[in-house]
C-alpha cells in the first residue's frame, strides 16, 4: 500500500509544480460555469413553466455545474497517456515494474484526481452551495454522495482503461478518445440532465453503465426521487458497484489478453 | 550575397501557397496508407456530431425557444458554427500537438528553417476528418435554411461565404491563443480543452449574457462572433447590429493578434523543454 | 566583416532564470506562491573564431553549456552578453536568414517529415530552401556516390532504424549546401559500423563542399576521426581551444605504463610526465619485485577528456581558475 501512496503523492506534487497551469485551470472552469449559467438562465426564462421535467432552474444549474466539476475531477486522460507510452515504447519499462499495471496506472492518476478535487471540485461545490442558497442539504446525502463518487471514479477509470487498451491495436488515439468522450458525455448526463431525455432514450440509457458516473451521484446529492435513503438509494449504489465489478473484470481480461498478444507479436 | 537577397524576395505568398499544397498533397498520400486510423477518426467525428446534435435536439424538445429564437433559427446557427469550425479542424489541427512538442523540446526543429515558424508548424498536419463536420454542418444549415424559408440568391450566398470565413477567423484565433499559452505555462493543456468546449456555446444568441460577461464573450473570448453576429445578418436582415457589419474587420484583427501572440511565444522558445 | 570566418563569437554569455524548487509535497505547495528565482549562468565569456571549412569538435560534460552555445549560433537563443556573427549575420536578430545558410541535426530528434518517404522530404526541402534544379540533382548524385541511398529514398522516416534516420537527417542538413552545419551528437546510440559510415559521410561532405562543421559529441571516436580542432567547455567557460595532438601535451603529457610482474600479472600506472618520468616509476616497482615485461602506451583522447571533465588536470591556470563548486544541477540543457 505504501508504494501506491507514494505514487499518489508524486502525482499531487507534479500538479502543484505548475502553478500557472493551475491558475488557468481554475479560471477556465469559472468561465465555463458562467457560460452554462447564462445559457440555462435564458432557457428557463424563455420557458412557460418554472419546472421542467421536475427540474427547476436552480436544480439544473446545480446538476450541470457539479457535473462539469465532477467531469474535470474524474477525467484521467488515460487514453492519451497510454497511447503516448505505447508509441514511445515507455510502456515496456512500465510493464516490467513489479506492480499490477492497471493498479499502477490508477494510482499514478489518482494523485491528479485528488488535486483536482481540491482545486476544481471543492471550490465549485462551495460556490454552488451558497448560490443555491439552501437547495443542497448538508446531511447524510453528502456521505452517500461521497460513496457514490468513489464508485464513479472507479467506474470512470475502468471505462478509460478499457478504451485505452484499444490503443495497443491502433494508433488512432484521437478517434478512440473522441468516440469515448462523446458517448460518455451524452449518456452520463454531463451535458444535459438525463431527465430531459425522451422516454425511449432514457430506457436505453438505463441499461448502460455511463449514467452511474455522473447522473447517479448528482441525483443522490440533490435527493431526487428514487435516490434517497427512504427509497432506492441502495439499489442505485449497488448498481454502480455491479457495473464497477463488471467493467473492471472485463477491462482486466481485455488488457491481459491484449498485452499477451502484443508481446507475443513482438510489438 | 546578391543571390541570397533575391532568394528572400521569392518567399512571398505564392511561395508559401505552393509549399503548402505540396505538403498537404504528401500528407494526404501518407494518410491513405493508414486506413484504419482514417476510418476510426471519421467514425469518431461523425459520432461527436451526432451526439452534439442529439444534445441540441433534446434541449429543444424541452424548451421550444431561447430568448425569442426558435428551433429552426437556432438550428441555423448550429449548422453555421459547424461549417465555420471546419477550417480550424482541417488546417490548424497541429495546434493540439503544440504543447507536447514544446514540453518535450521537439519544437526546436521548427526554428531551424528559413520559413515562417507558424506556417511551418501548422502546415505539417492536414486533418481530413474535419471534412465530415463540413458535410454534417452543411446538411443542418440547408435544412434550417429551407424550413425558415430564407431566399436563395447570389448576393446572400456571397454574404454567407464571407460570414463563414469571418466566423472561422475568430474560431482559429481563439485556438491559436489557447495553444500558444503553452509557451509560457507548463501544463496548459486544459486551456485548449476548455476553449474548444466554449465553441459549443457559441451558437446561442449573445443576448443571453448581460453586463460584463457580454463584453467578455464579445471582445475577450469572442465566441459571440462565431455564430451569432455573423448569423444574424442572414436571419434578421432588418436589424443588423453594427458589430455584425464590423465582424470581418474584427476577424482579421483577432486572427492577426493571435498570430502575433503565437509567434511571440515561438520566438522566445529556447528549446529547453520542461 | 571577416569573410574568412564562418563563426565569430566575442565574450558570449547566457543567463537563465530558474525557479528555486523545494522538495516534497510541502515544498511544492510553498513553491506555488514563491518568487524565489536563481540566475544561472549557462555560458560565460566564450570567444571563438571558426574559419570556413573547419570541422570543430565542441566538447564538454553534460550540462556544460554546449547546447546553449549551439542554440545561440543557430539563432534560437539570444545571448545575454557579447557579440555573435554566423556567416556575417547576427543569428537571433535574423533567424530565418541565418537558417538559410546553416544546417542542423539535433541528436535523436528527426527534423524530417515523419510520415513522408525520404525523397519527398528532400523535394520539400528543395522548395523550402529554393534550391536550383541543377544544384539539387548534383547533390543527390553526390549522395548516391557516398552512401547507398536507393533503399532509403522510398522509406518513411517512421519506418527507418535509428542509424538510417540519423543518416537521412545529416543528408537533409547538407542538402541546401549550407555554409555551416551543426551536428549535435550525431552518432549517439549507433552501432560501430553505422558510426564509421556516418563519420565517413561527414568528412567527405566537409571536404567536397567546404562546409564548416560544428560537432558536439561524447564519443571520442568522432573526435579522433573528424575534428581538426577541439573546443572544450565546462561550467559554461571555455577551457581548451586547439587541436588533438596539442590536447595531450596541454593537459600534461600522460602515458600509460604497463608492467608485468611475477605471476603473470599486469599492473597499469598512469604517468604524468610533467611531474615524474616513467623510469622512476619503474625503479620504484623494481625495488619491490621483479619486472618481467614493460609496455609504454600513449594515452587515448578519451582518457584525456575524462581527466579534464573530472577536473583532475590542474596544470593550466585556465583550469584552476574555474570554480568547480558551483552548483548547476538545475540547468536543463
CATH superfamily of the largest domain in chain C: P-loop containing nucleotide triphosphate hydrolases
Radius of gyration of chain C: 23 Å
The number of distinct helices of chain C, counting runs of at least 4 residues, comes to 13
Amino- and carboxy-terminal Cα gap of chain C: 31 Å
Short summary of the structure?
The complex is a heterotrimer of chains A (267), B (274) and C (333). By secondary structure, chain A is an all-alpha fold. Chain A has helices at residues 2-16, 19-46, 57-74, 78-88, 90-96, 101-132, 140-165, 173-187, 199-206, 211-221, 233-264.
Overall description:
Chain A is an all-alpha fold. Chain A has one domain. Chain A has eleven helices and no strands. In chain A, α7 packs antiparallel against α10 and α7 packs parallel to α11. Chain B is mostly helical and 274 residues long. Chain B contains twelve helices and two strands; from the N terminus they run αααββααααααααα. A two-stranded antiparallel sheet of chain B has the order 1-2. In chain B, α8 runs parallel beside α12. With 333 residues, chain C is an alpha/beta fold. In chain C, β10 and β11 form a beta hairpin. In chain C, 38% of the residues are buried. Chains in contact: A-B, A-C, B-C.
Descriptive labels:
A: 267 residues; mainly alpha; 11 helices; globular; C: 333 residues; alpha/beta; Rossmann fold; 2 domains; 13 helices; disordered C terminus
Amino acid at each position: 500500500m505504501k508504494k501506491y501512496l507514494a505514487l499518489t503523492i508524486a502525482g499531487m506534487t507534479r500538479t502543484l509544480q505548475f502553478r500557472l497551469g493551475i491558475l488557468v485551470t481554475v479560471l477556465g472552469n469559472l468561465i465555463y460555469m458562467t457560460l452554462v449559467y447564462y445559457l440555462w438562465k435564458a432557457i428557463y426564462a424563455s420557458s412557460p413553466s418554472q419546472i421542467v421535467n421536475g427540474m427547476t432552474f436552480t436544480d439544473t444549474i446545480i446538476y450541470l455545474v457539479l457535473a462539469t466539476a465532477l467531469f474535470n475531477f474524474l477525467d484521467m486522460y488515460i487514453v492519451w497517456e497510454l497511447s503516448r507510452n505505447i508509441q514511445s515504447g515507455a510502456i515496456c519499462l512500465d510493464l516490467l515494474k513489479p506492480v499490477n499495471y492497471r493498479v499502477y496506472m490508477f494510482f499514478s492518476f489518482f494523485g491528479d484526481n485528488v488535486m483536482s478535487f481540491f482545486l476544481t471540485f471543492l471550490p465549485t461545490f462551495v460556490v454552488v452551495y451558497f448560490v443555491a442558497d439552501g437547495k443542497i442539504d448538508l446531511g447524510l446525502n453528502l456521505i452517500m454522495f461521497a460513496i457514490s463518487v468513489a464508485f464513479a471514479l472507479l467506474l470512470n477509470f475502468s471505462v478509460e482503461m478499457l478504451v485505452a487498451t484499444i490503443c495497443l491495436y491502433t494508433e488512432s488515439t484521437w478517434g478512440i478518445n473522441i468516440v469515448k468522450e462523446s458517448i460518455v458525455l451524452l449518456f452520463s448526463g454531463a451535458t444535459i440532465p438525463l431527465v430531459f431525455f425522451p422516454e425511449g432514450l432514457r430506457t436505453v440509457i438505463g441499461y448502460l453503465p455511463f449514467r452511474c458516473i455522473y447522473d447517479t451521484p448528482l441525483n443522490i446529492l440533490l435527493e431526487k426521487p428514487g435516490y434517497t435513503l427512504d427509497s432506492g438509494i441502495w439499489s442505485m449504489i449497488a448498481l454502480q458497484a455491479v457495473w464497477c465489478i463488471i467493467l473492471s473484470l472485463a477491462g482486466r481480461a481485455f488488457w491481459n489478453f491484449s498485452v499477451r498478444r502484443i508481446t507475443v507479436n513482438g510489438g | 550575397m546578391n543571390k541570397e537577397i533575391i532568394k528572400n524576395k521569392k518567399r512571398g505568398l505564392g511561395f508559401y501557397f505552393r509549399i503548402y499544397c505540396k505538403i498537404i498533397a504528401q500528407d494526404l498520400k501518407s494518410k491513405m496508407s493508414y486506413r484504419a486510423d482514417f476510418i476510426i477518426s471519421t467514425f469518431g467525428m461523425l459520432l461527436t456530431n451526432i451526439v452534439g446534435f442529439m444534445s441540441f435536439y433534446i434541449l429543444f424538445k424541452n424548451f421550444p425557444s431561447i430568448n425569442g429564437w426558435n428551433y429552426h433559427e437556432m438550428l441555423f446557427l448550429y449548422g453555421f458554427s459547424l461549417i465555420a469550425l471546419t477550417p480550424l479542424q482541417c488546417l490548424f489541427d497541429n495546434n493540439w500537438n503544440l504543447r507536447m512538442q514544446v514540453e518535450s523540446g521537439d519544437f526546436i526543429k521548427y526554428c531551424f528553417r528559413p520559413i515562417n515558424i507558424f506556417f511551418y508548424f501548422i502546415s505539417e498536419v492536414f486533418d481530413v476528418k474535419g471534412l465530415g463536420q463540413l458535410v454534417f454542418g452543411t446538411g443542418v444549415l440547408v435544412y434550417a435554411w429551407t424550413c425558415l424559408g430564407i431566399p436563395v440568391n447570389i448576393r446572400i450566398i456571397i454574404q454567407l461565404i464571407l460570414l463563414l470565413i469571418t466566423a472561422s477567423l475568430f474560431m482559429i484565433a481563439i485556438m491559436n491563443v489557447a495553444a500558444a499559452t503553452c509557451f509560457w505555462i507548463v501544463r496548459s493543456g486544459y486551456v485548449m480543452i476548455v476553449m474548444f468546449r466554449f465553441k459549443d456555446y457559441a451558437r446561442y444568441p449573445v443576448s443571453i449574457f448581460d453586463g460584463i460577461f457580454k463584453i467578455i464573450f464579445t471582445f475577450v473570448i469572442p465566441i459571440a462572433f462565431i455564430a451569432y453576429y455573423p448569423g444574424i445578418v442572414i436571419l434578421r436582415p432588418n436589424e443588423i447590429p453594427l458589430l455584425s457589419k464590423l465582424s470581418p474587420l474584427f476577424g482579421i484583427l483577432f486572427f492577426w493578434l493571435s498570430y502575433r501572440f503565437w509567434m511571440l511565444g515561438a520566438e522566445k522558445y529556447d528549446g529547453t523543454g520542461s | 566583416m571577416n569573410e574568412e570566418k564562418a563563426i565569430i563569437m566575442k565574450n558570449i554569455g547566457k543567463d537563465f532564470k530558474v525557479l528555486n524548487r523545494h522538495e516534497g509535497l510541502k515544498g511544492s505547495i510553498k513553491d506555488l506562491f514563491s518568487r524565489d528565482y536563481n540566475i544561472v549562468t549557462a555560458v560565460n565569456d566564450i570567444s571563438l573564431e571558426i574559419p570556413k571549412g573547419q570541422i570543430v569538435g565542441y566538447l564538454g560534460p553534460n550540462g556544460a553549456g554546449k547546447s546553449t552555445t549551439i542554440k545561440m549560433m543557430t539563432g534560437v537563443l539570444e545571448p545575454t552578453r557579447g557579440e555573435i556573427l554566423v556567416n556575417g549575420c547576427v543569428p537571433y536578430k535574423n533567424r530565418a536568414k541565418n537558417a538559410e545558410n546553416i544546417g542542423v541535426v539535433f541528436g535523436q530528434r528527426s527534423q524530417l517529415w515523419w510520415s513522408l518517404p525520404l525523397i519527398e522530404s528532400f523535394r520539400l526541402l528543395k522548395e523550402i530552401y529554393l534550391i536550383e534544379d541543377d544544384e539539387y540533382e548534383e547533390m543527390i548524385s553526390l549522395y548516391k556516390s557516398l552512401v547507398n541511398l536507393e533503399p532509403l529514398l522510398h522509406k518513411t522516416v517512421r519506418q527507418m532504424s535509428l542509424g538510417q534516420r540519423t543518416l537521412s537527417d545529416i543528408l537533409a542538413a547538407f542538402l541546401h549546401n549550407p555554409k555551416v552545419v551543426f551536428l549535435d551528437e550525431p552518432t549517439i546510440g549507433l552501432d560501430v559500423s553505422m558510426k564509421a559510415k556516418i563519420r565517413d559521410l561527414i568528412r567527405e561532405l566537409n571536404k567536397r563542399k567546404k562546409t564548416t562543421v560544428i560537432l558536439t559529441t561524447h564519443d571520442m571516436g568522432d573526435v579522433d576521426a573528424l575534428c581538426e580542432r577541439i573546443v572544450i567547455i565546462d561550467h559554461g567557460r571555455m577551457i581548451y581551444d586547439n587541436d588533438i595532438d596539442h590536447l595531450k601535451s596541454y593537459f600534461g603529457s600522460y602515458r600509460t605504463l604497463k608492467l608485468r610482474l611475477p605471476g603473470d600479472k599486469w599492473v597499469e600506472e598512469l604517468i604524468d610526465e610533467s611531474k615524474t618520468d616513467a623510469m622512476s616509476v619503474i625503479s620504484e616497482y623494481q625495488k619491490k619485485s621483479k619486472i618481467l615485461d614493460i609496455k609504454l602506451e600513449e594515452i587515448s583522447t578519451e582518457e584525456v577528456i575524462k581527466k579534464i571533465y573530472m577536473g583532475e588536470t590542474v596544470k593550466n591556470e585556465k583550469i584552476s581558475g574555474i570554480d568547480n563548486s558551483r552548483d548547476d544541477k538545475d540547468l536543463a540543457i
